[in-house]
Predict the 3D structure of the following.
Amino acid sequence: MSHKPYAISRLSGLIVAGLGVAACILARRLPAQTGFGLGPAFLPFWTGVVLSACGLWLCVRGAPDPELSWPSSRGLTRAASALLLLLLYMLVFEPLGYLMSTAIFLVVGMLLLEPVRPSRVFVFGLVSAAFLFVLFRTWLRIPLPSGVLGW
Amino acid sequence: MEIISALLSGFSTALQPVNLAYCFLGVFAGTLIGVLPGIGPVAGVAMLIPFSFGMNATTAMIMMAGIYYGAMYGGSTTSILVNLPGESSSVVTCLDGHALARQGRAGAALGMAAFASFIAGTLGIIGLMLLAKPVAALGLRFGPPETFALTFFALTLVTGLVGASPVKGIAAAAFGMLLGMVGLDPMSSEERFTFGALHLADGLSFISVSVGLFAVAEVLESVERDQQIVLYKERISNLLPTAKDWLASRGALWRGTVVGFLVGVLPGAGATIASMLAYALERRVSRQPERFGRGAIEGVAAPEGANNAATAGALVPLLTLGIPGSGTTAVMLGALMIHGLRPGPLLFEQRPDFVWSVIASMYVGNVLLLILNLPLIGLWVRLLRIRSSVLLPLIMAFSVTGVFAVNNNVTEVGVMLVFGVIGYAMRKGGFPAAPVVLALVLTPLMETALQQSLQMSHGSFAIFFTRPIAATLVVVGLTSLALPAVRGAAKWLRPASVSG
């Protein structure tokens, strides 16, 4: 089991170093000097260098953190489902309108996390969405999407 | 006398019904955010910023400050009752607070946490009042080199103090700096890291990034772990600490306040560091250090006092120099800029009404919090019974609404989700998120100051070492960066048998 924290440290080091190198490459395409003095490439380039150095250090000397662990495949599936649901919520947010999209999101989200008492969850989801709608649109006057049904 | 009359004038604004209502809303939301594990003050303030667009800057700041210090009050409740810190600044409160709860003294621990928060919070505001004017006067002498040095100092300090690994802290700050460079270069207006996307030309919205990194990431991690809070079922009574408790906590309160306030004033260190240092100091000065961790009441008083004093201290660099010292104050700085205010030394001269109204509201807010946290403690305990299957979707609906309201654009929600995934990955890798937000907000200020300084010196970096204030800040910043490297090198050179 002890190799796992090392693997996390090395993987995160590789990602950090990759980001740093990418920042350096992108920065090299920007002017190094302008009429004002230092060009827009200076800070991104050196920040990229620092990031690459941190990444390399983590790869080579990164100490394992016993508190870190890989998520279980079941846990990861749950997190991925939540993310997918959020993504769908974002996609239907404008076409369906705030009230309907939020009600569907809340009901599906609650059932996804704990699939018990669907009728109660359904009522709670609808009431919560209506409450948020009144709070944001009527009280705080935030322009929220109306959607196909006009609300 | 000048301070008293300014404060009285501040009270006349802070006590106006609308400001009083938003102060109450802020401290109520803050306590809620503090009590509920899963959402911290950074995400809480960021999520509520779009809802403050209709308010004036003073009312908005009164509400945001209320959330910030309100979260410090609420954070202790879950630490004490269920050994689960509501906030990172209440982690050490778990040690003795929960031990006291197990001994049937939850009431005394909750009461001491609330009183310590009130006393230290109020003393912290007095410190803010006394220190703000001289620091602002000092700030008036700041030119671009000092501004660069201060932002550099703040970033170096936050990287070293947050999280277990300084290298991960530095990497997080560097990542945040790169995010802060997305958009147009401040001097040449050259596009950077936009990849041709029009949306990115204005830079990344710190609201979407902070809500993503903190709220979405926390929700994803909670869903992945599928943990339910263990409920506290005992009856809570005797919220007033005994005379013996007060006697034991007397010194801890003072020391916690002083340590908390001073740490809060430092740019880069916030309430979490303050509470940890105060706890460590208390254990060190105690005649019976073995009592700590087994239910010492001063182990509750010191960190809870310190984290509240730190919130008042953290407003000193924010309001007087325009430099945020923590993730939450970085978000507040961004919010104030949206409201058309540029915090800095001139704020005290140009908008004294704003500054003193916010300070006065903090006195009012602390009284409101004492009422909310003592007689109404039962309400917060009941809130802990809300199931995460209900809470998490509600937090997300709130986040999506808030981020959408930034500029009525669903693209911002997409940015939030991307940073939610990044924040989740950072948690899994043990990277702190606070330096990212701080660097994102500070980098434009830092880069402009750097370029202006080099224009002043015709390209010579010596300008940062020939001006006393700038030189001190840069040297201290470089030292705090170098220390972990030196320690790491020493460890490297040590024989394998010793290093274990």
Chain B touches chain A through 63 residues (CB under 8 Å). The radius of gyration of chain B is 22 Å. Chain B has a mean pLDDT of 86.
